[in-house]
Amino acid sequence: MGRVKSRILIISVVLVAIVGGAMVVTAEESPPGDPALYEGDAVAEDGVLAPEGTTIVAVVDGNEEDDVTVETVGKYGGDGFENEKLELDSELGDNVSFHVGDADGPEAIESPVPLESGTNHQLLTFPEGTFDADEAPSVTDLTVSLDENEVLVGNQTVRL
Questions:
Q1: Which residues pair with 72 in a beta bridge?
Q2: pLDDT tens per residue across span 61-117
Q3: Phi, psi at residue 19, to the nearest 5°?
Q4: pTM above 0.70, yes or no
């Protein structure tokens, strides 16, 4: 009977040490901050929109933290809840910068911006020549239909 009690005592001491150690480690680690989500328009200074397939990268303190692929020309992320966005821990640092391709790629002129929790609509303007103008979409056909018989021209209304 003494052996069973001593084994139970030893197992109890080991469990307390393991659980206590895990509690100390957990107490020392800080919990993640609220998510900071970024989405918006991506364009170069020369007016060329970011083509589909372009990778936009979020960098905090020199580390690439997240990336998103442009799925709609000129837009990264999406404004709907279901759309992927650049998602960062708001406690990673004070600022975030945005690059094309990787952390060393062309940097958005607006960078860095404050790293703030919540959903942030952020225009990203990259240096001229960042995106290939030959890959940019162009308007080949435009149809306009009017439901009204008035059109605003400049600051005057014209009746048709």
A1: 75
A2: 999 999 999 999 999 987 766 678 999 999 999 999 999 999 999 999 999 999 999
A3: -65, -45
A4: no
Nearest Cα residue to 106 out of 88, 124, 120: 124
- Find, among 13, 71, 62, 10, the residue nearest to 39 by Cα: 71
Q: Which DSSP state fits 107?
A: B
Burial (Cβ within 10 Å: 0-12, 13-18, ≥19) of residue 108: buried
Domain positions in the chain are: 1-30, 35-135
CATH 3.30.1490 fits 35-135, yes or no: no
Coil vs helix vs strand at 12: helix
**pLDDT tens, position by position, 129-149:** 999 887 655 444 445 556 666
